User: Fold these one by one.
Assistant:
Number 1:
Amino acid sequence: MGVSVDEFLKMLKRLPEVEQSDGGNWVSLKVRGKGFGYLWEKTRTVGLKATIEEQIALVAERPEVFEVQFTTGRFGWVVVHLDKIDPEELFELVTEAWLLTAPKQLADAHEIGP
């Protein structure tokens, strides 16, 4: 169990048009200029966009893996500890964050699979 930073970065290549930019202490993840995630290599954590309902459920189920980052509007961002999550679940969460952010036409045009 657990995902390395390199494995996480490789995982992002499976999603269309992911842009990475260095924010100093973090890497910002965007699709068509809109953010859906962050990577903090130093702490081996990732922040991902989610629905507020999913944020609450993830943190309640496994607080050792997930923590609340912040909420904004109808979204609840979640911090994910890379060393405590399996790759399939992480890719599912990254894909959901990407889908919540990508323009509908882009999301519809690309079939995201395992």
Number 2:
Amino acid sequence: MKKLLLASAVSALAAGGAFADEVKIGVLLGFTGPLESITPHMADGAELAIREISESGLFLGGTTVAPVRADSGCIDSALATASAERLINSDGIIGIMGADCSGVTRAVLENVAMSNGVPMVSPSATSPGFTDFDSGGIFYRTAPSDARQGEVLAGIVLERGFDTVAVTHTNNDYGAGLANAFAENYTAMGGTITITVPHEEARGDYSSEVGSLASAGGDALVVLGYVDGGGSMIRTAYELGAFEQFFMPDGMYGDELLATVGEALEGTVGTLPSATGDAAENWARVGEASGINWTSSFVSESYDAAALLLLAAQAGGEATPAAIAANLMNVANAPGEQIHAGDLARGLEILANGGEIDYVGATNVELIGYGEAAGTYREYIVEDGAYVTVTFH
């Protein structure tokens, strides 16, 4: 993909000079809320890239980098906004790795990041609403849009012979956007949705929602949510005998789901953004040596998001938000030498010498526009209490 140049001007913050002794990157994720079981692994992925770059000694003349964690709550816009303000105004970060859930990401972007000119790279905000949103060139994501996931999941459901389903989705931007994308594609392909029921996260009892879903009928239940709430929905539906077959998206994937839902999850089929080829092989090598849970949801996307922020600063020659925003698209796409996970020091060296890189990273990164990324999805099935890869789409 031919490099794109930033057309809009982005104001720089005073925080972080051209060659400060240390700069800070915000890691804004849902350490509380419905993704709290997988969030620590995502943070570990981002901090793995930050540490790799900092310890190389090649970032902006030996400048070191420190991550600063902050809580988005996943679905708590007020908390996420306050956390972002603290990161910018108190901690002096030069970029935000995050946020995670789509609703809070939009809130932070509109209420804090855009007005301060601070770039954000989200590893997991997949709402289709970001595709056409004009952020002034400061918002990016390393996971593909749910417009694509909805299409892939709809095809999988029909290919497995389920042409009538009930749907429940978490009641926020992520759930609604994915539900709309799934419904549009599923019905266009010939499927029938008996009912669509939104659900709130962190409720102890989902029997009312399951009752409505069961009354409407359907050969399977499509649960579009997060690990905690969505998992409880599946367990309740199974225990009440309402449904036996379930389908789920990326927000539901996690080892914790296997432990909490148990036998109810057996045979469940889902989708998850996943790389193939050299990128996947390199990430497996780096991940296995890292000591972190590198196979968990959005860990590889978090590694890439953090790496992109810092490689863009290196390309711009200074640790400022403006330098990052102006160079993110350039370092992420061709032309240039391909840089994989674990190869960040070489990328820094090439950029320091005036060369160009094409960051492939852990997920085959390709930014196809401000706020949009290309990507492939892994289809998996739960068998004998484990996630088993079926194929890639």
Number 3:
Amino acid sequence: MAERRTAAADRRPLRSGPGRVLVAVYGIFALAATGRAAVQLSTKFHEAPLAYLLSALAAAVYVVATVALARGDRTSGRVAVVSCSVELLGVLVVGTLSLADSKAFPDQTVWSGYGQGYGFVPLVLPVLGLLWLRRTLRRTP
């Protein structure tokens, strides 16, 4: 019984307060990016394969981040740190490449233009996620 309480207490910091908002926003982005990638890959793959594969990668990263944040234990916190870091790197690299060589990206991805099509949330979200994880993982025993 004591082990059960400890496990639940370990999850509380990641999923409480702003952590709940992060899980919700990541969940929305996971659904949106997965839906967009599925449609793009199934109907227009030949038009912009790189862009559509990057949309699928973004979707996978959002799904992993959502699940890791929702689970909330210490191991999942580490997975969330990695997925948020990959997301931030993806947004920065794809955002820069999409602006530098727009011909390589004939169609938008979640990360192109630093997430401009999504109100720059893809750029801000991993930063907020990493800050939240840094704060809460320090406090978790």
